[in-house]
User: What shape does this take?
Amino acid sequence: MGNLKLTNISKSFGALTVLHDINLSIDDGKFVVFVGPSGCGKSTLLRIIAGLEDITTGEIEISGRDVVHLSPAERKIAMVFQSYALYPHMSVRKNLAFGLENLRFKRDEIEVRINEAARMLAIEPYLDRKPRQLSGGQRQRVAIGRAIVRNPDIFLFDEPLSNLDAALRVQTRAEITKLHRDIKTTMIYVTHDQVEAMTMADQIVVLNSGRIEQVGTPLELFERPKNLFVAGFLGSPRMNMLKATVIGMHDDGMTLDMGYGTTWTTGIEPDTSMIGKAVLAGVRPAHFSVSEQDGLPFVVQYYESLGTETYVYGTLEGQSDQIIIHQAGHFSPAPGSRLKITPLPDRLHVFDPETGLAIPRKAKQRDEAHAFA
Amino acid sequence: MRLLEVRDMIGRLAGLLMGIVEAPINALEGFMGRKRMPYLFLAPNLLLFGIFTFLPIAIAAGYAFTGGTELFVSDRPFVGFDNFRQLLACEDYLRPGSCRESLFWTAIWNTLWFVAFNVTATLLAALVTALILNRAIAARGFFRAIFFYPVLLSPVVIGLIWKWFLDRNGLLNAFLQILGVPPEIFLLDVGWSRFFVVVVSVWFHMGFYTLILLAGLQAIPKDLYEAAAIDAASPRRTLLRITLPLLGPNLLVVLILLMIRSVQIFDEAWVLTNGGGPGTANSFIVQYIYQMAFGSDLRLFGLASAASVLMGLVLLVLTLIQLRLGRKMES
Amino acid sequence: MSHGFNPIGFLTRTRRPGRIEITDILSWLWLIAGTLAVLVPVVWAGLSSFKPAAEITRFPPTLLPRTAVETSVQGYEKPLSLWTVTIDGKTREMAMVRRIGLKAQMVDPQSPEAPVSVDVRAMSPVQKLTAATENYTDPLTRFDFLTFLKNSVFVTFVATLLTLIVNAMAAFALSKYRFRGKNAIFVLIISTLMIPLTVVMVPAYLVVVGVGLVDSLWGIIIPTVASPTAVFLLRQYMLTIPDELIEAARVDAASEFRIFWRIILPLTAPALAVLAIFSVLWRWNDFLWPLIVLSSRENFTLQVGLNAFQGEFSVQWHYILAMTFLSLLPVTAVFLFLQKYITTGIAGTGMK
Assistant: This one.
């Protein structure tokens, strides 16, 4: 029992509207990540679910109950804060016990729950220490422990890894994922880091300027971004956008004129009304093939080799927009040299530059099996 | 160990007390809702403020326009500007004797002279001490503490200590005798008593202003001095061109604060001079208000209030200047 | 031994190492003179408070409390005082029987049979160090001093406790909540800083009479409990407590009052400690307001009592000084133990 349903949620601070008509439903047991640039409203949305912010309009249901007028404590949620928000004057044990004491749990029940959480998170040795005597990673675990002992319907995480160093972040990421597999409780996780989103989520909610841009599994969002924002936000380095013109339609899809006397045929749904229209062709850096003969003329500016893979930065001849291509292994093209690049045809995304929306791909052309090449 | 036990006990006791208080307050929270709790937290404070601070302020002005010796405003006849007229009726303001309320004008002139001397002397002494303590001098903490110590004492205690020091049989006269000077009853001499009221006031309050100026001095970035040293500035030039200009805003604030507090001189002078003596040589404005209202059953509340209002206006102007300066300093 | 303590280096530590300038000498002179100026009147009053009544008005005074040495001599009922006497160039100790004008009749304590007449200019009293503890015990037992002390302790303790709680609650509301009228209330409270007691003492007295607290200890406790300085100080401190802690507590099902006393109060402890010290000093030293409100002797605080004493016992300096010194002791103790706290507190808040 830990499903969540948001209906027509809006939130304004005075004249400023930070969330516009949010509709979202989350099934029990899912790990959902809210992701978006800073200021997109993802934290506000989380705090609204927690009951820490009021909503201007809309409805919130947790486990089938209307919770709009309930206090955070009554919503059966628990939250891990960005700063951990451990009570600095209480020992770890007291920190874990505080919420249960407030709910008037019996002393031995509190003891049992604390010990169980401490064992699960391996914080038993620190139970009698104060938060300031713990390392960042240990504090993080205590914060999670404080959520676990409450045995909530939904866990809420507000950028919980942003105060950790890079190595610890990777490790904790894996631990939270494992925790979710173990306890199978619904978790909602806010982050601005798309890597966290892609690696942890069952379901990603991409937010931008107070609106939901797209909801789906990491793969869906990566493979079929609904619009330019999602395409640009997910994936690193970001997707390259090339100017193109639709010149023809046939059964296999549309044909694009890329300039330089090059045409590409894609697996995109044909629509004859689009002929002659200027579009943007989106290609991820990894989805180019490089050759000496065919393709768009690419002028190398510089490259970054990471040993096992190489990113080459450059422009199309005569243009100024930077294009990044990814090559497996070590690759060292001389700056100023020319390459010919061609996208993998079934990896091409086409966007309408006016609406920003993606033009849908033909269903039969999709092949998710080798999506992450 | 003992101390911890005591702390633990106090903590437990407080917890127990709070536990008792908590239940009804939580019930109120359930009734009023979380959103209104801040009003509940503010309520005791605002209630006390309302009764004992705002109400008197509201009454204060009205009081000044009533006469008689009754305490409650409703029993007092309205007399318009009579009290002010009485206070301000004067042939020559420079000669208090020619005024209808000669005591009031004596007090005003005494206060003005006191403020002038006290502000100058305290400011200079505090500034010099702060400049010295700001140097990398040995035992700085010790000296800072010593100079600060009198600030904590009660004005009554200070009045008595100094009274004894200046007594006919006191230590000062003993010193003077060693130097061959005949003993003097300082507090019965008009000039000496006024002088020592200022001395005692400087002695009492200097440490406080030293501390504020010292904090200001220590806020001046060290690299400015290093830059000045590299620019071969002499210590005198460093003081005049770097330290004092940068301390300027603090000095101004201290100056106004000193004025505000000096105008209100009462406690230590009252004890030291046996209520303003000799004669009225050390009768100050607050003492005048106190005596008119509460001294020897005069019960001239209207006159006292009128004098309060006049003093309040002066203090208000000074305070507004101070706030103005404070805001300038922040920006 | 480079880490050893070097007393000479310590004392001669100056702005520029290795060179003592005229400004350094002047600085030290100023500091030493200032230290003496602060300490001498206090120490002098302290030493004098141990002098017996007979000794305290002696001029020129002795620095340390001394008393005449007396001895019992055979043949005389009362003990006689001992004097150093010079007779025919020889110095000896003799007891004084009686004194007539410039002549005194003296006997040798060892052989008291033959009194001799001595010129008083050729003799000086034999004295010993003493501590006239009766200066302290008499006021405590015979006069109302103990009542004053009790009143002062009561007022100081209760008023400080109330000041802490009432103002901490207000500061909590003003720092951690958003509500209608918040800024107006804050400005209203802070603006009363501008109106000192001296300006409103007549109407304030009226109010105290009106609510029936005149000539009662509660009349000096309650009116000063709500303090704008305290609200300001505590609010500034509470603003530094992260809001996430309060939100975490709300998620943890804590009521707002529970958040106040389990989370906010413990975390505000440093500011509360500073405020407590100041409150204790304010109450203990308060004079003008108690002087106005209290009229019967059994309600006097120490300061008002001391003031009354000095009018009544105008020549009994030994009692006055002893009581002065007693009332100075707690403040001095507070100062010795909490000096750092207080000075940094003042430098940080500019309050007194």
About this structure: The two ends of chain A are 37 Å apart (CA to CA). The interface with chain B takes residues 71 of chain A (CB under 8 Å).
